[in-house]
Sequence to fold (222 residues):
Amino acid sequence: MQIDIVSLFPSICQGALQESVIGRAWKEGIVKLNFVDLRDYTHDARKTVDDTPYGGGVGMVLRPEPLFECLADLRTAKSHVVLMSPQGKPFNQAKAREFTKCKHLILICGHYEGIDERARQCLMDEEVSIGDYVLTNGAIAACVVTDAVVRLLPGALGKDASSDEESFGNEPLLEYPHFTRPVNYKGMRVPEVLLSGNHQEIAAWRLEQRILRTVSRRPDLL
Ligand code: ADE
Fold:
């Protein structure tokens, strides 16, 4: 799979994604990451990408030309082009799983007040939001989406099964609580059932904990 991230700040994305699990998946060729600077598709000395909105109002709007030229360059028949925007459909685990099936994902980072509507309508296959808040910069949202997608690719987590039982995995349940050594930390003990070696009882306890957590924290998931 290849993911191209088009933004005005490619170094934000490169810095965040070259570390840890995603950085390793990139180095091992599980994913190919490509960081594209939208300013490379401008033709004036100041590399202008934005302008004031017609009709007045505050803020700046990304001009259509660099976006059209950029996508003319990057897009192939296999590409899926996604605009990062607070007005998009909510991004979630199901959408992350869906994106893993794409051969070539192109994430476009909006900026300032947004992008020219003609570029949005003509160029984007879909628009996603990572939450109901406004970031200064779609680059961070693109990193979130890339991280959530790449860690699901076979081999990215080392052990293929390890994303199955986590929150928003195959069932709409949050994760159970985890414990490691020591058994007793300042009087707080690991639940006895986890020390019992009885795998059936452990599985039943974990499922119960997942249900209790989901009911108390995220009843909307049930
Ligand atoms: N750009 C600015 N805010 C955003 C959000 N919440 N989701 C995706 N892209 C964004």
